[in-house]
Amino acid sequence: MTDVHAADPFAQAEASAATLKRLAGAPDFDAAVVLGSGWLAAADAIGAAELEVPLADLGGFELPTTEGHAPAVRYIKHGNHRILLFLGRVHMYEGYAPHTVVHGVRTAIAAGCRTVVLTNAAGGVNPAYAVGQPVLISDHLNLTGRSPLSGPIPAGYPSRFTDLTEAYSRRLRDLARRHDPALTEGVYAMLPGPHYETPAEIRMLRTAGADLVGMSTALETIAARHLGAEVLAISLVTNPAAGLSEQPLDHREVLDAARASAARIGELLAALLPQM
Ligand code: HPA
To answer: Is 62 exposed, middle or buried (0-12, 13-18, 19+ CB in 10 A)?
Structure first.
C-alpha cells in the first residue's frame, strides 16, 4: 500500500501548511471544508476564491483521481474569516494509507483551522431518507479496520488515544439546524470500498445502527479530533443503499444526484461558515 508520508506525516503536514500560508499570503486560516463526490457544484456557492492552489504545489499531497474530485484548494474570505476549500480528497480505495487520506485535514489544522467541515456522498441505509437529502453526521462506524493514528506520533502532539465520544460537534450541528430546521442527523458507516455493498451488508449495517454508508470521512474526523479541531460533517444521500431499491448502484447516478443538490447545500455552508 502506498504511504508516502509514513516517515513523519505530521512534519509533512506542517511543511504543506507553511507553503500554503506563503502562497496565500495569509498568516493563518480559520476553517476548512472538504468537498466530497459531486460536491464541486457547491464550491462557487460557498464564496469567491481569493486564490486557487493546485495540491501538487503544496508537497505531500497525492492527487484525487476519482471523477467528481479536483486536485486543488481554494482560499475564500468571508469578512475577516479565512476559509480553505479542498475541492476533492483521496480515498483508501485509491490505494492510499490512512496518513495520506487525512493529509489535507492535518495540513488545514497545521495552518490554523480550528473547524473542519467534511462533506460526502452517501448511500441511504435509513429507508426514510430521500435522494438529494443532506444529513448531518452525528456519529460514525469506522469499518475500515484502520486508523490515521497508528504508527509514531511525534513529541509535542496529543496522545494517540483520542476520545471520540463527541466526534461530531453538537454545537455545530445545532448551528446548522438553526439555519435549516429540516436537517436530520444520522450515523455514517465508513467502508473501504471501492465496490458498493451487498444487500446483506446493508442489512448488517442497519442492524448495527447505521443510517448512511460511504467510503470517506471517518478517518479524517479521527485525525481532526486528535488535533483538537471541531468537526461538522454532512452527507448528501445520493442513492438508496444496496437492496433498498430495484436500481443497481452506479457512480454516475451518485454524481448526478450530488450535483443536483450541491448548490443548495453550498448556500447552507456559506451561511454557516462565518458563524463557526
Ligand atoms: N455505498 C457506499 N458509498 C457510497 C454510496 C453507497 O451506496 N453512495 C455514495 N457513496
So the answer is: buried
Indicate the range of 13-17, 61-65, 148-152, 160-164 predicted with least confidence. 61-65
pLDDT digits (tens, 9 = 90+) for 180-218: 999 999 999 999 999 999 999 999 999 999 999 999 999
Helix (H, G, I), strand (E, B) or coil at 114: coil
- pLDDT tens for 106-134 read 999 999 999 999 999 999 999 999 998 99
Give me 150's grid cell: 497508528
Runs of H (alpha helix) within 2-102? 9-24, 43-46, 98-101
CA distances from residue 64 to 35, 87, 130 in whole angstroms, order as listed? 12, 9, 28
Cβ proximity of 264 and 150 under 8 Å: no
Catalytically active residues, by annotation: 37, 69, 91, 93-94, 121, 215-216, 239, 251
Measure the CA–CA gap between 86 and 69, rounded to whole angstroms.
Answer: 9
Give the C-alpha separation, 149 to 132, whole Å. 33
User: How far apart (Å, rounded) are the C-alpha atoms in residues 228 and 204?
Assistant: 32
**Structural domains of the chain, ranges and CATH numbers in brackets:** 9-275 (3.40.50.1580)
**Is residue 236's pLDDT more than 60?**
yes
Residue with CA at minimum distance from ligand 1 atom 2? 214
Q: What is the pTM of this model?
A: 0.94
Q: What's the mean per-residue pLDDT of the chain? A: 92
State whether the beta carbon of 210 lies less than 6 angstroms from ligand 1. Answer: no
